[in-house]
Amino acid sequence: MADSEPSRTGSPASSAARLAWLDLLRGIAAMVVALHHATYYYVPRWRAGLGIDWFDPGLYGVLVFFLVSGYIIPASLERHGQVRRFWISRVLRIYPLLTTACAITLLPYLLGVRGLRAGLEAYRPATAVLAHLTMLQDVLAVPNVINVLWTLSYEMLFYLLVVALFVTRTHRLSAPIAVTLAAAAVLVGGLLPMAALSRTVGIGPTAALTAVVMVTAIVAAVSTRPSVRTAGGILGGVLAIALVGLNGRIGPWQSLIILAVMFTGTALYRAEHGQIRPRTAVLSAVVVLVCAVAAGALHAQVTMAPAQVDAFAVYWSGSLILAALTFAGGWALRRHRIPRWLTGLGAISFSLYLLHPVLLMLSDQFGGTPDHDDALRLTVFVAVLIAVSALTYRYVESPFQRLGRRIGRSTATAARRPAVGDAAGPVAAPAPDDVAS
């Protein structure tokens, strides 16, 4: 998944070393998810023979991603101190590669040689495209054109909530927010409906209304007028909460846990930078972990057959605990030198994550499904994935990231310039409390 970095101070070498542990975690998470899907395809018998049933590699990988996003995304917004710059950065960080991957995925369908996944072709094209443009398709009852895109919906929900907290100056409350979300997952997560808005209003109207509200919220949130900016941020936050609580594809309890995990990452960032007490962050992390385990166990008890309850509880809890330990291990290495090849995987992690299902699709289309374990094809797949991801990072991701930084800098310069006829000073200059230290 896509993360950004806070604006860096100090020498490039010291900044790279300081953030290398995050690249390490991103690289691990991306490769685990890619191998999770690829081994099902290339070496299913070997995978089954391992007998690993205490954690789910795919779930583990995305939980690590969510922790990293929670740690770094609010830092990016608060260090820049501008909502406009934040959204420019997000759009140019995510959409170029996202549209590239989706276009490649759609090509076989447009050529008439392959259908879309999860019956997406049965939906109106305008609805499917609009839902994916918002990145909220997974909470709009629209199937993901690429299976891994569901996580980007939660990234977008998190962005909307982070902006809402920032413009209302409540962004330092990450720890209590994480605990509240986790507690809500246990107490009411099993009672909230799934896809209620889409069933009641219709998928098309819900997607259209969501797009209008989201665009309105973002446009208002980047306004130079404080009252409009605040209203826009709040509107986006309300939209995020409504979609999570009323219209998710997965159980609301799990959606709430995902957001709680992300805000746990934020709380840990604040503790490291002296914004909250370390014990507050650690305590909130423990509470979130306990609530997450409890919510999963409760969900299994209520909705699953007795034979499935224990298995789900074990792999759900195992994935959570292993993700937490991985993040803690990465944090412990933050002052150590990380091998360049590992940080390199982290740099291309978004490409690894988005493109591996595309390459698996193309492999199936042109090479067929193996009828036996084929370790050689798995090795070739990994090598091709890394090579292609390096190319897309260089020629798709990096140019647009540089463009985003240039636009962001020009936006920041314009924001510091006094408005015409405004003798009071710069437009939209952030208050000291709005910028993370």
Helix residue percentage:
over 70%
In DSSP terms (H or I, runs of 4 or more residues), the helix count works out at 16
Low-confidence stretches: 6-14, 418-437
H-E order: HHHHHHHHHHHHHHHH
What portion of the residues fall into strands of 2 or more residues? under 5%
Q: What is the molecular shape?
A: globular
Overall structural class, as computed from helix and strand content, comes to mainly alpha
How many domain units? 2
Taking Cα atoms only, what radius of gyration do you get, to the nearest Å? 22 Å
Mean pLDDT: 90
Largest sheet: none
Amino-to-carboxy terminus distance: 26 Å
Number of strands: 0
How would you describe the overall organization of this protein?
The chain is mainly alpha-helical. The protein has two domains: 1-78 and 319-415, no CATH class; 116-303, no CATH class. Helix content is 73%, strand content 0%. The protein has 16 helices and no strands. Mean pLDDT is 90; it is low at 6-14 and 418-437.
